[in-house]
Structure formats: structure tokens, C-alpha cells
């Protein structure tokens, strides 16, 4: 079962500026959703190693509220007897260890991408609303429904020309979720882009080396292969 709920962005916890300006901090934050690529039975111990690492202990005060939310939602908070409570979403819902070797490499989106999308969703919507104040952005968006006035046999090729234009490629991250919806609803989902295929292969290779890597090195390797849009 895929995680469908929204995950509060780092902005809510006052971390947006640090995430945007500090590459190491951003990488360390991405090591949290990277836990989705750890075998289910190792997730809690791996999470404990991560939050007890030098970086997390040095930044304990900054990360405290964010980690409280993360634990309540995905991992489970510790009770008085030092046992993990049931999280809002059970680990089985978002863990995709087996997808490392199946759907991830076939081009299908495993639960980690939905997990990451949940992290990005709220902020992405807000950014789209802000961009609507830009007349050029509004014009470019209106070019999508304008496809209705294109000859039926030319719609797909015209759509491809549009999304490969300079404006759309320069704003790819902002438009990604919106275009996914547009394609799924009106055009038909396009084959996975090569860069996503390459990323999937890199992650698969890291998963293959799971037993040979220290868990922090493993999570760091996974985290290098995706970005959180905040």
C-alpha cells in the first residue's frame, strides 16, 4: 500500500533556508526517506544509527521538532519503556526494499517515489500558486489546454514539443507534479525519462551492496540519488 498522506515540509519546522543553502544538511535530511530502501526488519536499528550519528547529535536542537514529526508519522515514538509506539503509517506501507530488485528497475514507480512525492507535495502546490502571479508562467500553462485546438493526430507530438521547450525544461522541477497529473488525465503517461531510469539503476546497484556497506554510507548513497523540492 502506498503512502498517500502529505508529509509536512521542512519549511514548517523552520529548516527551509538551511536545507536550501547547506548541501550537507540537505543530504542528511534526505537520508531519512532513504530508509525506505532498507530491509523492513532493519529500519528501526538503521534509524537509530542515523539519529545517533555525529551530524544528528550535533544538530539535535535544530532537528528535534522535525524528528518528532518523522517518528510519530513513519517510525514510531519511544514510550517510557523505550519501545517504539505504532506510527501513523506502518513501515510496511512505505518500505520498498523488494522494489530495489523488481519494479524500480522496470520503470514502475515504487513506494519510495510516492513517499518522496508526499514530502514535496504541499510545498510544490504553494510554489505553483506563487508562480501563477507571473504572466509568462500563466501563459505557458494556458498552452496546455490550447492543445484541444490541435489536430488529433498532432496532439502528442505538439505536447512533446511544448514540454521540451526552453521554458518547460527550465521550470521542470516546479511543473513536474502538475505535468504528471496532466499526462495521466489527458495525454497518457510518457515512458520514464532516461535520467530516472539511470537513477533507478544506480539505486538498484546500491541496494545490491546493502550487506557490504555501513548503514550510514548506504543511506548517503541512496540520498545522493534524489532531491526534495522545498
From TrEMBL:
It comes from the Eukaryota. This is Uncharacterized protein. It comes from Aphis craccivora (Cowpea aphid).
